[in-house]
Design brief:
Layout (H helix, E strand, L loop, with lengths): L17 H21 L4 H18 L4 H10 L1 H29 L2 H24 L17 H4 L29 H16 L3 H20 L5 H32 L18 H13 L2 H26 L1 H22 L1
Helix pairs in contact: 1-5, 3-4, 3-8, 4-7, 4-8, 5-7, 5-9, 7-8, 7-9
């Protein structure tokens, strides 16, 4: 049975190990969280950016966060569940879907979706750094926004500072509103569920979840509509860069991976290939001198002629005997002529 030797690097197509995936995701998330803190910037600059976004939306009549915030503020049955969704689903559902993809889907699907999420998160970090933005809830009260997280804070674990638990508001950057990764991650979850979910509930959740989170981030006054649009655009750019990022990592991995010896796939599995003998034989054939080659060719022609005459010798025994008797006579005549 032919023996096939796996090519070098084939193991990279296998499913990633959880003990390598967890540190990778932890490092990226730690860098993301640390980057949010380092990108706080000047508060006055963040407020200016927030007001510029609000005024631009008002000119285009796309400031959907204003009427939504009024509804969430006036109706606790809507505002409280929205606050719980904003404070939890972003951190629970996204990693849950990531684990589901790791366990249930092919390695190539998981690698692409995981890389897409990580690259998009890093792009969002760049946005926080370059454009710190004050969310609507932190603008002056004259702009008409109410912080529902503070209004309904007694119902949940969060305090008056974003979705951070009480007493930990100093560990988060409240001015990292552009882009909205709440919307970006929810869009990633929806696409993953739509493409790889099999049930009707998975398809429905793929559509409903990103829409609900988009309404939640605006109704709770945590993001502008353009923040949500920028979050979706961030995921689009991340999807375009995920493929090149994967190819780059594979190139770097192959460069630093030790070279593995490979054996030919064809031939007998147990028979050793005596390559040296073949090379020496070929060399001797090429190094034979022309005279030896002529002798060998003449010998082949003589043997061929003898083989063709054998058939006549078998049928004419007497003629062969007569020829054998005439041969000495010819020899005696040659000897007499010599004397």
């Amino acid at each position: 049975m032919p023996h096939t030797v796996p090519r070098a690097g084939a193991a990279q197509g296998g499913r990633p190990r959880w003990w390598t995936e967890l540190p990778l995701i932890a490092v990226v998330y730690a860098a993301y969280s640390a980057g949010r803190l380092l990108a706080r910037g000047d508060v006055s600059t963040a407020v200016d950016h927030g007001l510029a976004i609000l005024h631009f939306e008002q000119r285009l009549n796309i400031d959907f966060e204003s009427p939504l915030n009024d509804i969430f503020t006036a109706n606790a049955a809507i505002g409280i569940p929205a606050d719980f969704a904003y404070a939890s689903l972003h951190y629970v559902l996204t990693p849950a879907i990531l684990v589901w993809l790791w366990k249930r889907r092919t390695a190539s699907d998981y690698r692409f979706l995981r890389t897409w999420l990580l690259v998009s998160t890093l792009i969002g970090l760049i946005g926080f750094t370059l454009m710190p933005t004050c969310p609507p809830r932190l603008l002056e009260a004259g702009h008409g926004f109410v912080d529902t997280m503070a209004q309904y804070g007694s119902y949940g674990w969060w305090g008056g500072e974003a979705s951070a638990p009480r007493g930990l508001g100093g560990l988060t950057n409240q001015y990292a509103a552009m882009p909205s990764l709440h919307v970006g991650w929810a869009l990633w979850c929806g696409i993953a569920l739509w493409r790889h979910g099999r049930s009707v509930w998975a398809k429905a959740g793929a559509v409903v979840y990103p829409l609900v989170i988009t309404l939640v981030v605006m109704g709770t006054a945590n993001h502008y509509f353009l923040d949500a649009a920028a979050g979706a655009a961030t995921m689009g750019i991340g999807a375009l860069l995920a493929g090149p990022a994967l190819r780059l990592t594979e190139t770097l991995r192959a460069r630093f991976r030790p070279v593995q010896e490979t054996a030919p796939a064809s031939g007998n599995a147990g028979a050793p290939a005596n390559v040296g003998d073949k090379c020496e034989t070929s060399g001797r054939e090429r190094e034979r001198i022309p005279r030896q080659q002529d002798r060998g060719a003449g010998r082949q022609r003589t043997d061929g002629a003898a083989g063709d005459g054998g058939r006549g010798a078998g049928t004419g025994g007497r003629g062969a005997a007569a020829a054998g008797g005439a041969a000495p006579a010819a020899g005696d005549g040659a000897a007499a002529a010599a004397r």
